[in-house]
Amino acid sequence: MNPWLLLSWAPTIHFPLSGDVEQDLHPNNHQFFQAIQKHAGDKVIEEKVFNIATYGHQLALLTDLVTELAASQNNLSPKAAKALASIQDIKQQIEHCKKTEYQTRTETLQAELAELTHKIRTPPLQREPSEKRHTPAHRKG
Predict the structure, then answer these.
(1) DSSP 17-58
(2) Is the pTM above the cut of 0.90?
(3) Triad 56, 58, 59: Cα angle to 5°
(4) pLDDT tens digit string along 3-42?
(5) Does residue 106 sit within a domain?
(6) Do 39 and 64 share a domain, yes or no?
(7) Of 60, 61, 71, whose CA–CA distance to 95 is shortest?
(8) What is the count of structural domains for the chain?
(9) Phi, psi dihedral angles at 60 (to 5 degrees)
(10) Domain that holds residue 118
(11) pLDDT tens profile 86-133
């Protein structure tokens, strides 16, 4: 009899903090909507609307519409003209924020890709000692 066959029939033992790990990577916004007070709106409807279009997307559409309609008016009151200027300024700041964030993410990803490409193309014997084996920061020292 082959002794290795016995290992295939051996029971699987899982010690604490070991074994299979399962993680749901889908964000759960359900708790956010459950915090909506009764007088502020319907929790179920708010969650369904959010899944159709986020608040930011809804506000962006409204901002575009309002600024275009207001800009086409010839005689805005001083208060309306000031509000329009404020909305346009906020819109520009948001676009600048998005552009900067996307640029930063792009540069970070390009740097990470270049580092990985370097590690792949460099044989292990030619790497710096720190590149040979990755040690987590909490284990150093």
Answers:
(1) T-S------S---HHHHHTS-GGG--HHHHHHHHHHS-HHHH
(2) no
(3) 65
(4) 666 556 666 676 777 766 676 666 666 677 777 777 777 8
(5) yes
(6) yes
(7) 60
(8) 2
(9) -65, -45
(10) 80-123
(11) 999 999 999 999 999 999 999 999 999 999 999 888 877 766 666 555
